[in-house]
Amino acid sequence: ASFDYIVVGGGNAGLVIASRLTENPHVNVLVLEAGPSDSIDFNVTVPGLDLTVTGGSIVDWNYTTAEQPFLLNRTIAYPRGHVLGGSSSTNFMAYTRGAATTYDSWAALGNHGWDWNGVYPYFKKSVNFTAPTVDQSFIVYDKAAYSNPTGGPLHLSYGGYVEPISIYFTEGLANTTGLNLQPGEINDGFPLGQAYLPLTVNPTHMTRDSSSTSFLGVASSRSNLQVITSALATRLLFDPKKSTTVTGVEYRDAAGVLHTVSANKEVVISAGAFGSPQLLMVSGIGPAAQLKSFNIPVRVDLKGVGQNMTDHLFFGPVYEVTDNITTFNQFGSNATLYNQYLQQYQQNKGELTGAISSMSGYQRIDDSILTGLGAQALSALEPTWPHIQYEIIASGSTPVPRPGNFVSTAAVLLYPFSRGAVTLNSNSTSDKVTIQPNWLASPIDQKVAIWAFKQVREVMLSQTLAPIVLNEAFPGLQAQTDAEILTAIQTVAHPIYQASGTCGMKARADGGVVDSNLRVYGVKNLRVADASIFPIIPSANTMAPTYMVAEKAADLIKASQ
Ligand SMILES: Cc1cc2nc3c(=O)[nH]c(=O)nc-3n(C[C@H](O)[C@H](O)[C@H](O)COP(=O)(O)OP(=O)(O)OC[C@H]3O[C@@H](n4cnc5c(N)ncnc54)[C@H](O)[C@@H]3O)c2cc1C
């Protein structure tokens, strides 16, 4: 079979691209998705069950990282959606764009058109924004950040439920001297402060909106779009006469049978920060030495493929709270309560209509503090670029499990200096890649993490939180020195799954994999478009930037038709 375009990966980015390209009835598109349809798992739909579709679920790749040398050699679960919609079907739904200055710095790397003014319209293009309900009048927002004359397919709303712990934490972040994070809109390019976050939740039935329910939803009836699920792309196909011209894709279907499909125009790889570099490498595009060690013939020696992995690290103390603070711990382990919540959910009400985490604070650390920490390098970021994100999760546990009602606080390093890599274990996409994020490898990251941990603790032990906080369940107040705090961080730190940069959009000499048109260096008819292309990680969660990249990718492809 032959198509104009083949999109590999029906995930967050891939379905946006397929949907936009097939707006033109004269263009036909095939999507190959390794995972099943998203209708396979009811929990995918329910915002409040988001934690159940991450680790260990049937719609996840269930990756585990390599041993983390700077996190006490732990190996850590790393979920990724293995389903239509990809990680947008399994994530925590927080829609955040980050600082305008990040995108200006993308453009400064030579990526013309990727500055904030160039990308802001693409962020807006995807979305259909519903303002907070009357019950949510405490939420500060600016609808201009979402305004879009035609209305995008992706619903954003504030869900139907905000956990009480978020409300307390929000007040704590505002009242604590030194933080003083005030509420405001954070998706207008100027995120410093704090906000309840818009969620990808369709307010009509309080269901998750993913790239599948939104973008594929509007396109699925088009005769020029074909989507094949349970189709694992195994390698790219090339013109036998021109070894660097892509002509199609080989994939394996659910029965294990290999098929080939050809692309008259282009192949677009949107297999995510792990899948995209893997498919490039098994097809002969990547660091030559690594390819040779698996007997893969080298087509293009592209050193940056799989390198420069950048990721946000998430860590903080855990608190035991009073029973009136709703948490996942309560209903996750209590069938009666769980069924009661499900019944309420069927009427569009109650705890399950919200995500497990619903607010974030964004802080810029003062230059004087950075100097004291030996982290002056962070001062160089443009002034509106936040360094730390604060969050609270209505769920928690202690490393040595004990019963109780817990919440996990978190600081997130928004501009980490540590870099990792994704490397092959074989010449086949059937084998998982090795994921080595190398979190906290940078001494600057370690110092900033210790400082941020202390800020979270100050908020949680403040007068504002005193009515509901019973004790610090982990690490406990005996941990006070920097060394003790670093050990505590290393014991519990984990990702929030924002892997990026493994096919960076920057100069080839600087480890770039794609140019500013998302074309792979040295290869014809091939682009990459997903979170792997971020040349610098946004100061935000990565779903909204992924939607933006995909929208812009679709226009770049249309422009070259
Ligand atoms: C549990 C979790 C929670 C998160 N929470 C948030 C959040 O609240 N807010 C936020 O902004 N971000 C969040 N993120 C991050 C965000 O979801 C991702 O950064 C983003 O969705 C990545 O999009 P992508 O298109 O790059 O990759 P994906 O959406 O992962 O898509 C890649 C697709 O390619 C498919 N694929 C891979 N290899 C192949 C192959 N060889 N052949 C065929 N198909 C293949 C995969 O199955 C997948 O469907 C979270 C992520 C996770 C996993």
In short:
With 561 residues, this protein is α/β, with parallel strands linked by helices.
What labels would you give this structure?
single chain, 561 residues, alpha/beta, 8-stranded antiparallel sheet, 7-stranded mixed sheet, 25 strands, 24% helix, 19% strand, binds flavin-adenine dinucleotide
Structure description:
This protein has 561 residues and is an alpha/beta fold. The protein is built from 13 helices and 25 strands. The strands form 7 sheets. Strands 7, 16, 17, 18, 19, 20, 23 and 24 form an 8-stranded antiparallel β-sheet that branches. Strands 1, 2, 10, 11, 12, 13 and 25 form a 7-stranded mixed β-sheet that branches. It starts with a strand and ends with a helix. The mean pLDDT is 96. This is pyranose dehydrogenase (acceptor). Monomer.
